[in-house]
């Protein structure tokens, strides 16, 4: 397949490298020194599942240079999505598919404001990875997984073909018939740990070991589930229990990308995670005191990072 990885960070770098390794024609969209190093030395993937060097790597900062694209995997941060969509809408072929692997619950809504839904499939990923240095992506933990599905929850011919493309690349893959349920399940997991991790400056293992912090995490999750049910999302009654089993099984020193971004003074996905729950709670008339507390405690730091990086609020 002719695939574009829009955003060559920890997520895009990993999945893009594996897709190249499986013989696909992959173009990486990157910026700055990261792009420069990838062009010169290739993209180096480090992973306990096997290292791989993409060399030579097809990489550019301009998606307009790529023609006849079969699939675009959007792998930027949520606050970069609008900019990505503005560029992507100009390069679509008749049958181009778009899947967002971003955190958050309204990425499809953002994309579909400018792009016909016929191009869009819902999606998410599960992985702990990061840019270790320019041109180097380090997969730290978690079985790299892509979950995706048609917006109408039908197993279409193109979805079934794409499922095989991911599997041939050694990517754990789930083609779902309820993509909204899957997106909210991932959202529950990541929004339960990320902002609290940024607030405490602690790893998942450190937080779970403190009963008071673990209780705060539970209350955060309960509020998210309340919002999800009000939105008619089909989450099972034991969803929080299942998610906490996953959280407790993470390596002790695991941190989220939101947490790492905030600790490094970078713009984060705070608005798309706990901030989104606060906003939805206000719209629905549902109280979310724990998410409010976490969100507003972190908001001054988020605003400062956005000012320093010249990004609008």
TrEMBL record:
GO biological-process terms attached to the record: pantothenate biosynthetic process
SUPFAM superfamilies: 6-phosphogluconate dehydrogenase C-terminal domain-like (SSF48179), NAD(P)-binding Rossmann-fold domains (SSF51735)
Residue ranges of domain Ketopantoate reductase N-terminal in the record: 3-152
InterPro entries: 6-PGluconate_DH-like_C_sf, 6PGD_dom2, ApbA, KPA_reductase, KPR-Related, KPR_N, NAD(P)-bd_dom_sf
E.C. numbers: 1.1.1.169
GO molecular function annotations of the record: 2-dehydropantoate 2-reductase activity
UniProt name for this protein: 2-dehydropantoate 2-reductase
Phylogenetic placement of the source organism: Bacteria, Pseudomonadati, Bacteroidota, Flavobacteriia, Flavobacteriales
């Amino acid at each position: 397949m002719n695939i574009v990885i829009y955003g060559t960070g920890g997520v895009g770098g990993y999945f893009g490298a594996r897709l190249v390794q499986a013989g696909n024609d992959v173009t990486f969209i990157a910026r700055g020194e990261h792009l420069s190093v990838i062009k010169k030395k290739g993209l180096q993937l480090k992973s306990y599942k096997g290292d791989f060097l993409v060399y030579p790597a097809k990489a550019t900062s301009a998606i307009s240079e790529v023609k006849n694209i079969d699939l675009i995997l959007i792998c930027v941060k949520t606050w970069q999505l609008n900019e990505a969509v503005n560029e992507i809408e100009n390069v679509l072929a008749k049958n181009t598919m778009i899947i967002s692997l971003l955190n958050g619950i309204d990425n499809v809504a953002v994309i579909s404001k400018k792009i016909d839904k016929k191009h869009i499939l819902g999606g998410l990923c599960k992985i702990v990875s990061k840019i270790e240095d320019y041109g180097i992506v380090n997969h730290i933990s978690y079985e790299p997984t892509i979950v995706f599905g048609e917006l109408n929850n039908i197993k279409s011919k193109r979805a079934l073909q794409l499922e095989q493309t991911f599997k041939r690349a050694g990517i754990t893959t789930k083609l779902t018939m309820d993509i909204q349920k899957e997106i909210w399940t991932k959202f529950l997991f990541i929004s339960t740990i990320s902002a609290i991790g940024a607030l405490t400056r602690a790893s998942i293992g450190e937080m779970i070991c403190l009963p008071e912090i673990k209780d705060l995490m539970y209350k955060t999750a309960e509020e998210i589930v309340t919002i999800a049910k009000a939105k008619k999302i089909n989450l099972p009654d034991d969803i929080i229990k299942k998610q906490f089993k996953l959280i407790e099984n993470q390596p002790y020193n695991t941190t989220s990308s939101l947490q790492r971004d905030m600790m490094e003074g970078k713009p984060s996905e705070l608005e798309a995670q706990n901030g989104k729950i606060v906003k939805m709670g206000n719209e629905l008339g549902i109280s979310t005191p724990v998410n409010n507390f976490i969100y507003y405690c972190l908001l001054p730091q988020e605003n400062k990072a956005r000012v320093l990086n010249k990004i609008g609020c």
